[in-house]
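For this section, I looked closely at a protein sequence along with its fold in token form, which I now present.
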Amino acid sequence: MASVEVFTWEDFDKAVGFLTHQVIKRAGCINSIYGIPRGGLILAVVLSHRLHMPLLTSPSEVNAFTLIVDDICDTGKTLLPYRGHTIATIHYVPKALIKPDFYVHVRAADWVEYPWECKRVATGKR
């Protein structure tokens, strides 16, 4: 059976704190945030509040100064269209096609279950 990391709201809050600090420290030209639907939306909303930056709601609004966020960079395919932008994720898988500029954890388990997701079922599907 696949291993599962249960990521709690407390874990999420710590991860957001870490990302907030990293973005403030190293990314001075960011002026907006866009979250990849669905996993990146919650992270994007919280980061937009903590960084006091507008949350963009459409990919057509993304510009060179937009921070792109997602919950995980697994294969990297979702983030590939945003290569060249500053990217932040909670989890990163080293075999991904793209490496985020900022990430908190290298995924150790086969699956990460975030607190906003439905519980996994026996088939491994959400």
About this structure: The chain has a mean pLDDT of 91. The first strand starts at residue 4 and ends at 6. The CA atoms of residues 32 and 52 lie 9 Å apart.
